[in-house]
Each structure stands twice: as structure tokens, then as C-alpha cells.
Amino acid sequence: MSKSLENFTAYSIPACVEEVEVIESVAQYILVVEKETVLQRLANDNFCKTNLCILITGRGYPDVTTRRFLRLLMEQLHIPAYCLVDYDPHGFDILSNYRFGSMQMAYDAKLMRVPEIRWLGVFHSDLAKYQLLDRCLLSLTSEEKKKAESMLLRCNLQQEAPRWRVELEAMLQRGLKFEIEALSTTSISFLSQYIPIKIQEGGYI
């Protein structure tokens, strides 16, 4: 099934990813976004056409099919993948799902994890750099703080992604969070400028 968003065509990920034999694309990178609303915003800006990329969203926590398809794209296209999530513990957990696999399905992690994925944002440093308004900031709830503390105990963070762990520690210490959409408070199309600049400048970890 496909649906057209102006000049952008979105396709559902095939249920049986293993049946996909050949993938060809002129894309230069893959961009995974946490939310469908963000994907739609980028689609309205013709982001893929301008930047030659593949956009994927798991609509929050990704299911098995989404993670398996991303892994297949990486294996066949040999292009980098970046992930854009909210600056909060849930966004971080979603990001970790792509890189390390689901904690609930650890036995299948090797088949679906994407250790090469890069965290593009959003980061706390974006607040000052892009002069985001204070009203975009929210305090972490007690539940979110507990979630962050729990994730900090995961050994794979320290061993495989120490810089990610530092960011999560800083998030917990500050006790603040904000959404991807906060970047659009100054301009509705700001995300379409932010993403390529971050990639060009190497502003990912």
C-alpha cells in the first residue's frame, strides 16, 4: 500500500521482509524518525527529493518488521543511517531499540540490531545553538527519571556507546526534556534545514 504526500510517496514496509530479494536506491543515507508527524512534515517539504534519502518511522517503538527492514537496507545499500528522536528517556529507549535490539527479544537481537546507526538528535546543545524558547522545555517526570536510571545500568551502553551514555546522564542530571517539534517553533520547515546541516557538520554520535 502506498500514499502520496505531494511529490512524496510513502510505502508500508512489507510484512515478509525476508522475501525482498533486491533493493536498489540512489539514496545517500537513511533517516529514521521517531514519529509519523515528523515524517509527514519532512514529506511536505519534499525532503527526500532534495536530500536523496530514505525516510523510515516506526511510529514510536519500532516493531520487528521495521527493525528487520532497516537492517536489510543497511546490508544491501551500504549507506549510513541516522536516527532523530525526542530528547527524553523514551526517545532514547527507541533509539537504543534500533541499535541494540529489544530487551524483550534479546534472542533475536543479532538479526535486527543496527549497531552502525548514528544518533542525529535532538540534543540539549541544540537549545542554545538554535535559540529554542524556554517554553519548549518540560521537566522529566519521576517515572521518566526512573526509566533513565534503569537504562544507565545497561552494560551495552558503557561498552558500545559511551557517548550516548554521557548524553543520557546529562539529561537525567538536568531533569529536562523537549520534543523534536520544538525545533520548528521558529520556522515550520526548520527541520528540513537542521537535518542536512547536522549531517554535514558531523553533529551526530
From TrEMBL:
Q: What is its main location?
A: nucleus
Name the CDD domains on file: TOPRIM_TopoIIB_SPO
Question: Which terms under GO biological process does the entry name?
Answer: meiotic DNA double-strand break formation; meiotic DNA double-strand break processing; reciprocal meiotic recombination
Q: Topoisomerase 6 subunit A/Spo11 TOPRIM domain: which residues?
A: 29-199
Pfam families per the UniProt record, alphabetical: TOP6A-Spo11_Toprim (PF21180)
One Gene Ontology CC term in the entry: nuclear chromosome
Give the UniProt subcellular location, in the record's own words. Nucleus
Keyword DNA damage in the entry? The reply is: no
In Gene Ontology terms, what is one molecular function of this protein? DNA topoisomerase type II (double strand cut, ATP-hydrolyzing) activity
Q: Cite the entry's keywords alphabetically.
A: Nucleus
Q: Note the PANTHER family from the entry.
A: MEIOTIC RECOMBINATION PROTEIN SPO11, MEIOTIC RECOMBINATION PROTEIN SPO11-1
What is the recorded name of this protein? Topoisomerase 6 subunit A/Spo11 TOPRIM domain-containing protein
What species is this protein from? Answer: Vanilla planifolia
